[in-house]
Design brief:
Elements lengths: L1 H28 L28 H8 L4 H18 L3 E7 L9 H9 L5 E4 L1 H11 L5 E2 L6 H7 L1 E4 L2 E4 H15 L10 H15 L5 H8 L3 E2 L7 H16 L4 H5 L9 H13 L2 E7 L2 H8 L1 H11 L9 E7 L14 H5 L12 E5 L3 H21 L1
Parallel strand pairs: 1-2, 1-7, 2-6, 7-8, 8-9
Antiparallel strand pairs: 3-5, 4-5
Amino acid sequence: MQAQAKACGYKLLSRELETKADKKQVSKMRRKHEDFHDGAKDGLTPLEPLELNKIEDFDQLLKAMGQTAFGGRSLGEAADVLEAMLLDPDCTVVGTFSGAMSVAKMGLLICDMIDRGWLQAIVTTGALVAHGFIETLGRVHYKYPENVPDRVLFQQGYNRIYDTLEMEANLDYAEDVFRSVLEKLDQDQVWSSAGLCRELGKYLSEHSGAPGILRNAYLKGVPVFIPAFTDSELGLDLAGYMVRGALAAGQEFRAALGALSLQFNPFLDLGAYAQQALTAKKLGIFTIGGGVPRNWAQQVAPYLELLSTRLQIELPEVRFHYGVRICPEPAHWGGLSGCTFKEGVSWGKFVSPEEGGRFAEVLCDATIAWPLLLKGVSQRLEKGQTK
């Protein structure tokens, strides 16, 4: 009985001590009005209501959105970073584009960036280039009629890309044009995606007056890299060209599938891009979407660092100082498309904000945010030129 009473006393004492400790902790956590801060005195940035009756152009709209919140503020801040990137005379800007942006009729935005001198290199997908190539050739994309089943679309020769249609006849026509370009190439030369894009751009400049990604890039001397070249209509067209040649030479079909009559080496792209990055005083990146184009463009920094450390070669440090990304992909899926610039700092791809890096990320459909951003920043820069 005495032992039980003693144990009970210990429990009561323990509870009393715990209660006193809890009260003491609560007392520490409880806020006091005399300790409250004032945002203005702390130097915080005040937000401002968006007054549309005071907005006269896209530049003013973006500036006003930058003083609001959520996605609007992100887009406004992206305009500030893009402006700084474009006004920095030492900055070489790389544009990376993925997704069906040419089918979505956003291709002329890339052309505008090229013509304004905003891009010094482009890294993109073969699909985006192929659909843009078709558009520059004068062919048309159509709105998808939702009442038509996909199996019927297949039978009718329509290829669906979400809410848009690419006709199989367009792809066939583009293959005919591409084959005519391939037939005139030096078959002994080793080619890369940038080399083939340059030749296609040259063809378009000679046969079409319409603006287009490859045409405008060729005329402005901007290289276009397609890292995953075989993952596209262009890649299939090149493969088909080689199989066609092998069959004409008498090879069996299975053997013809492995025939390489035209030499293609993707490491030529990597080498050319690395050389361009090494000569740049600063690097900036403008990204639509993510995927292979984004990672391939960004990995030049760790690639050159690996060469420096593993081969014991003195090389200048290469990292991106600026970055603007428009992509609906959130970070928590773990994919590269949603990877933040902050995470990229840990890989040595970007200059940290503490060291002067400036970055902006807009989680939005590019067909919504991209036109607004480009129009606003172009107006802002034009105002600066007239002052």
